[in-house]
Write a structure and sequence with these properties.
Number of strands: 8
Shape: globular
Radius of gyration: 19 Å
Structural class: alpha/beta
Number of domains: 1
CATH class: Alpha Beta
Helix content: 25-40%
CATH topology: TIM Barrel
Largest sheet: 8 strands, mixed
Distance between the termini: 30 Å
CATH architecture: Alpha-Beta Barrel
Bound molecules: iron/sulfur cluster
């Protein structure tokens, strides 16, 4: 009989064979932070991940074997800015540990510092994330400022926020006016699997939001308005083939709901934050780490997203990627790890901070915020 962990479901529907752990300490409505869970301390996550070095070998040694160590940045292309950890959802696998109870939010001064840095960074794209970035009170102002600077702006949307309150009704048109690209999470094209991972009612609200975006021209052929969806597995396994899943998503969403979109990105669940909590609760942590390590792909290692992306947190601190941000692993240059001190040349000479979680980026076809990498 096939082992759950050796199956790479080729459709998101296959996820339903996997059961969620019923952990009494994991009420889905609250973040790890508000539960005062030990994993809410990034250092505890790092400690746990480091313990896997003795069993599976270290990511650093893997890179050394392949001649990729130390990992160095290439030209900066994307500045990913986390506007805050507040979100209207509390998804089971959120690597940010975002939720309605998180109040961290980027202040105006740091937003201005980000704009100043973008002007000298050479980055052509700014990727806004959260939490739900749309909930930031200065979200529209910030997007307009990016638009004035001719920077390509990506908004990572959970979709439901766009239909959660009247004040967001104008957002699809606002996105359109500012040429924003929307990258939206939708872990499955079935209600059952999406709601299992993200909460009751999320699927139907997501469809409502997708229809609004389609009506504004998003995801429609020839409109130039990009609407990309993100799939992440519903359990402790790697994503199926990105292209195959895209075909399934396109067929199912069009035939059943009349929805169109541009591309599907598959993203591997990183063994951190709430997914780490999930793995521990269902006793799958070691198996999952083993799966990631065994699926290590040197081609993916040479294209990890930290080589062309820089991550900024709500306080303005700099990280090699969003995952390092969540583990509180700032960029190695201690004198330049805040956006106010941004110096693209000096930063470009740094070595990227790595850890055992990085196996999540190099497994199988590779994984990044823009989908597969190998
Ligand atoms: S987790 Fe971050 S630092 Fe590690 S390989 Fe992935 S993108 Fe790079």
């Amino acid at each position: 009989m096939a082992n759950e962990l050796t199956e790479y479901p080729q459709s998101c529907e296959s996820n339903k064979v996997l059961k969620s752990p019923k952990s009494p300490k994991s009420p889905k409505s609250k973040s790890l932070r508000s539960r005062q869970d030990r994993l809410s301390e990034a250092s505890n996550q790092v400690k746990l991940l480091n313990q896997s070095c003795s069993t599976f070998g270290s990511f650093k040694d893997k890179l050394k074997e392949d001649g990729h160590f130390p990992l160095k940045p290439k030209a900066l292309e994307i500045m990913q800015i986390n506007l805050g950890y507040m979100c209207n959802l509390t998804c089971e696998h959120c690597h940010v540990d975002a939720g309605p109870d998180r109040k961290e939010i980027m202040c105006h001064e740091v937003l201005e510092q980000c704009l100043a840095a973008i002007e000298i960074s050479g980055a052509k794209t700014v990727d806004l994330t959260g939490g739900a970035p749309e909930m930031h009170p200065e979200f529209c102002w910030f997007v307009s400022e990016l638009s004035k600077r001719n920077v390509h702006c990506i908004v990572r949307s959970n979709l439901t926020i766009l239909v959660s309150n009247k004040k967001y009704d104008k957002y699809p048109d606002f996105f359109k006016e500012n040429g924003v690209e929307v990258i939206a999470s939708l872990p499955c094209y079935t209600e059952q699997n999406t709601d299992k991972q993200r909460g009751d009612g999320v699927f139907s609200k997501s469809l409502e939001a997708l229809k609004k975006l389609n009506n504004a021209g998003y995801g429609q052929e020839g409109s130039g308005l990009k609407l990309n969806l993100v799939y992440n597995p519903g359990g402790p396994f790697l994503p199926g083939d990105q292209m195959g899943l895209e075909i399934d998503y396109k067929r199912e969403l069009l035939e059943n709901f009349g929805i169109t979109f541009n591309h599907l990105y598959t993203i591997t669940n990183m063994p951190i934050s709430r997914f780490l909590d999930y793995l521990l609760a269902c006793g799958k942590y070691e198996e999952y780490m083993q799966k990631l390590v065994e699926a290590y792909n040197p081609n993916a290692a040479s294209n990890v997203m930290c080589t062309n992306t820089l991550s900024v947190d709500w306080q303005g601190c700099l990280y090699d990627c969003d995952f390092n941000q969540m583990l509180d692993l700032k960029v190695a240059d201690k004198t330049r790890n805040h956006i106010r001190d941004f110096d693209p040349i000096k930063l470009n000479s740094r070595s990227i901070v790595i850890g055992q979680h990085c196996f999540g980026c190099t497994a199988g076809a590779g994984s990044s915020c823009q989908g597969t990498t190998a």
